[in-house]
Amino acid sequence: MTTNHTDTQFSGASRYVLDEELAKIVNISMALEMPLLLKGEPGTGKTMLAHAIAENLNMPLIVLNVKSSMKLIEALYQYDTLTRLNDSRFGDSNRDVSNIEDYIKMGKIGQAFTVDRKTVLLIDEIDKADTDFQDDMLDVLDQMEFDIIEIDKTIKAKHRPVFIITSNAKKDLSDPFLGRCNFHHIAFPDPKMMRKIIGVHFPRISTQVSENAISAFYRLRELDGVEKRPATRELINWIRALNSDPDFTPKQLAKGELPFLGVLFKKSRDYEMAKNLVARRRLI
Fold this sequence. Notes:
Blueprint: H1 20-32, E1 36-39, H2 46-57, E2 61-65, H3 72-76, E3 77-79, H4 81-90, E4 104-106, H5 108-114, E5 120-124, H6 131-143, E6 145-148, E7 153-156, E8 162-167, H7 175-179, E9 182-185, H8 191-201, H9 207-221, H10 232-244, H11 250-254, H12 261-264, H13 268-279
Parallel strand pairs: 1-8, 1-9, 2-5, 5-8
Antiparallel strand pairs: 3-4, 6-7
Helix pairs in contact: 8-9
């Protein structure tokens, strides 16, 4: 295995606003060759950080979207027995059915291990997986190898990927798992940071639209009883919607007239609550 130590430093990306503490933990994790575990509510930029690292360091990005029913072997490789059976029965393939390796397909971790370049491997929403998946996965990441049982072959990583692991903190992760990762909690942006984020995505936005939209957004987030509070991505999409409406004027926001609430709220109950408060001008 090639460890490929590098002095390359992550310093942010074109559409990702990076704070100093987060930049430091990313670079420390790469230097120590440890996975970086990111926690925070949905929409705080955990997933986008992996995209930003890949962009900034000019590395391919491989994304493993974890599902509750997923077994670790699926993330490593899959043996396509059905295709092999069909090839054996119908004989209309160029593959040699006696060569099982022709029917082995790498999963996302397997792809990151076998690619010829150093990659960023994003393991997204690890908290969906069970404890065995989490701990067994980190064993593989520690050893930088795994076995393909069907062909008695060990796959060793050509390069150690940059590991970014995200969690929405919906359930606790095991102590062994936490002990083998560096950790950073990405807090929801305060208004000052949000202005920077909006400025990156909308460099020509007027101060009036930006300030009124951000102010209304934070008032909506603070509503009591909201099940799914709007996140940064919803604010960005909301501003896009406002900008695309030829009849929209910034004064509407100042008056408490907030169109396109369905862009901000994705739960019916939340949407109806916000809609009723806006209709009664309770959010001015």
